[in-house]
Write a structure and sequence with these properties.
Protein name: Acetylxylan esterase
Number of helices: 11
CATH class: Alpha Beta
Number of strands: 9
Helix content: 25-40%
Number of domains: 1
Largest sheet: 9 strands, mixed
Order of helices and strands: HHEEEEHEHEHEHHHHEHEH
Structural class: alpha/beta
């Protein structure tokens, strides 16, 4: 069933933002601290049995200088710099295996897949530890890890890793540093929205069914995980509600959206209980840059799936023609 407002109301939905006074200073300080560590990006070519692509096992220094894993996959015929999609991953997923990420190399692009620290389920295994445990109480998952202090919060580390992943991709000679697109769905979509606000000069952002947007409303209208992790946490930590949301405001996609000038394509499923439509439209309607959104009325958290990928490929062809 449709789980949110009618579409005509969603298109005009522009809720007030809860923006911390130190939002910009917090993120400027965070990235300055991260860049004190050498990027130290290492690309090791590996034999995957995929004869039409070349695959590199990547390690680079993310938040705190911590090693973060990834894949760089390029067409085997590549001889010069290619446009590159930097791909971020959904909640509890890891970088998986190279054959999970062949769409963009098949289109003639490079793809740089960033592992998500401390995540990686059985379906999409990960290879990156999160050596920071966070402080204070939490419930299982990542959403409440360090949530009592913006400086300790898990997503400070993940979004910083996302920025450093762009820098790592740009450092490779087979990647055209001026032709970078960031992409992801759910948690990956939220990461793409944050990174595209924090990194200048990106060509496009593909932001699918983004998580971590309009978080206060999400917690009010869905019982689905991962937002339900916050609800379970606050059921027992009743006295911490204001403190928790003060932290989350530093990571809310609507605040990144209001600063974002990277051209973007969004997607939303009107039956999505995981990232409810109004939370997606809140970010989309506040988005300051050139934008479009694909609305999938009968879809849930998968959004447009392969149809959305086709729309992204169409934009990618346009970007290639413009670059040429």
């Amino acid at each position: 069933m449709f789980i949110d407002m009618p579409l005509d109301q969603l298109r005009g939905y522009l809720p007030p933002r809860h923006e911390p006074a130190d939002f910009d200073a917090f993120w400027n300080r965070t990235l300055e601290e991260a860049r004190k560590h050498d990027l130290d990006a290492v690309f090791t070519e590996v034999d995957t049995g995929l004869s039409l692509v070349r695959t590199y096992d990547v390690t680079f220094a993310g938040f705190g200088g911590h090693p973060v894993k990834g894949w760089l996959i390029v067409p085997a015929s590549a001889t010069g710099p290619l446009p590159c999609v930097v791909q971020y991953i959904g909640y509890n997923g890891g970088r998986g295996t190279p054959h999970d990420w062949l769409l963009w190399p098949a289109a003639g692009w490079a793809v740089f897949v960033m592992d998500s620290r401390g995540q990686g389920g059985s379906r999409m295994p990960g290879d990156t530890a999160d050596p920071v445990g966070g402080t204070g109480p939490m419930v299982p998952g990542r959403l409440t890890l360090g949530v009592l202090d913006p400086g300790d919060y898990y997503y400070r580390r993940l979004y910083t890793d996302g920025v450093r992943a762009v820098e790592a991709a740009r450092s490779h000679p087979l990647v055209d540093a001026a032709e970078i697109v960031v992409a992801g769905g759910s948690q990956g979509g939220g990461t793409a929205m944050a990174v595209s606000a924090l990194v200048p000069g990106l060509r496009h952002a593909f932001i699918d069914v983004p998580f971590m947007t309009h978080i206060r409303r999400a917690c009010e209208i869905t019982d689905a995980d991962p937002y339900a992790e916050l609800s379970r946490f606050l059921q027992t930590q009743r006295h911490l509600v204001d403190q928790v949301f003060a932290t989350l405001d530093h990571f809310d996609g609507v605040n990144f959206a209001a600063r974002n000038t990277t051209p973007a394509l969004f997607s939303v499923g009107l039956r999505d209980a995981i990232t409810p439509p109004s939370t997606v439209f809140a970010a989309y309607n506040h988005y300051a840059g050139e934008k479009d959104i694909k609305v999938w009325p009968f879809n849930e958290h998968e959004g447009g799936a392969s149809a959305q990928a086709a729309a992204q490929l169409a934009i990618a062809r346009t970007l290639r023609r413009a670059a040429d």
